[in-house]
Records
---
Amino acid sequence: MKKRIFSGIQPTGSIHIGNYLGAIKNWVQLQNEYDSIFCIVDLHALTNPQAVLKMQEKILDLATIYLSAGLNPKKCILFVQSQVPEHTELTWLLNTITPIGELERMTQFKEKAQQFKQSINMGLFDYPVLMAADILLYQTDVVPVGQDQKQHVELARMIARKFNHQFGETFNLPEALIYKNSAKIMSLSDPSKKMSKSMSQGCLFMTDSPDIIKDKIRSAVTDSGSEIKYDPKKPAIANLLAIYSAFSELSSNQIEQKYKNKGYADFKKDLAEIVIKGLEPFQEKKKALDKKPDFVKKILVNGAKKARKIARKNIFEAKKKMGLV
Ligand code: TYM
């Protein structure tokens, strides 16, 4: 039997190359080897007060992005989280065994709480339990994500272990799968910060036009010196090398050799070309699929049916173990 993977992205606006390189690009390969389920996590997005605006548009856009990037509904299940109500049902069950102290430790919660000081909602605090429910509901083995989600996957594993211990063997213990080179793509304008949807400055979006890509890469922050060489003490060039490497499949070493006697200007010019070329097939496919919203919606409806079948079976099992059935 194939191992199962599950992952998801929030429909909170444009998808950047951090999401692409850290997540979607890897999923496209993994769908060939794993029993694969990919979700549009709209319930998670609700924790951001602005996300409710045009939610249906954003969901459809993210689904179109998934398909245009190469996810194939014949090889994987694609669906919208809120269309499978068992996610929220399992969240409640898991809430009852999750220690508050564990949630208070979550780095992402602490950062978001800082960012939304005036409006820290309960959903933001409970976010990792909903994510654990997403993962455990499908008896997931492997969760392919970027570095920032590692702590949440570890929490899901802890919750599964606790549930099994308390109520008897029920859930698989999931593991995060993180690709080292693209685990954390940094902002082009501030390489000490993660490229992030909430900080659109310094973001390279998957739908950016060639001119915008050229512009953004040309004006990306650089470090002192002029050498194109990986050095952890030089985060700007390290980040640009990671992006170059992910799009070209060349190693850092090979790239360093190529630019031995060249400077930043040449390197950045080529990097822009590589990114533009790398995103071109995706952008063309997206333009075509944008004209077929009904086709995309149908894939999501079918996906939800398939996901729900698995979810129903597992929620029943969990409720039975807890004495509810
Ligand atoms: P989200 O929507 O913030 O991000 C989606 C995916 O993109 C990765 N990512 C990055 N990777 C590399 N560099 C970056 N700068 C970068 N920014 C984002 C994230 O690690 C993620 O893999 N909580 C999740 C969504 C979620 C989920 C799940 C994931 C909900 N339920 C169950 C896996 C399994 C999130 O907010 O991702």
---
Amino acid sequence: MNIKVVYQDITKIGRTADAIVNAANETLLGGGGVDGAIHRAAGPLLLEECRTLNGCRPGEAKATKAYNLDNKYIIHTVGPRYYSDPNPPVTLYNCYINCLKLADELGLGSIAFPSISTGAFGYPIKDAALICYKAMHDYEPKTLKQVYLCIYPDKNNLDIFEEIFKN
Ligand code: APR
């Protein structure tokens, strides 16, 4: 898999990515941050579908249609709340792996991630980027060829991801 770090609002990556990943919470009923941005861009039908999913456990991933967004799917995942999750590194690792697995199950070629848990959920950005790096390099893809890590809007976060992924 080719992994590219990009300075990009994930709601604007368009059909470059077959799926975009949403950093949601356990209810899957929306929120702020990237969750809020994705729901605003996708429109109200996204929330209607999310209501049928019966939530999502931390580390797990569930797919919905993308509605007004240009992508084929939105893959919702719930990252660890850094200060209360029993094992934040494992939960965050599982988020990345389970989103990649689900994208392969859907036969997708490309997927875009935000930096999961590094906003409201308080995960230190460098530790999170290292977990992301490990997951991306442990994963053995089936149909997936391209991963975009959409780091936005914080340029410091971009520098950290670029530093870790440049090797
Ligand atoms: N595109 C890409 N990345 C974004 C965007 C965007 N449009 N908007 C925010 N981000 C970045 C944030 O800057 C942060 O680095 O995504 C990262 C994740 O931050 P959050 O969106 O706060 O997600 P998270 O830390 O996983 O917390 C999830 O926040 O929005 C609520 O409902 C959500 O309760 C859940 C919690």
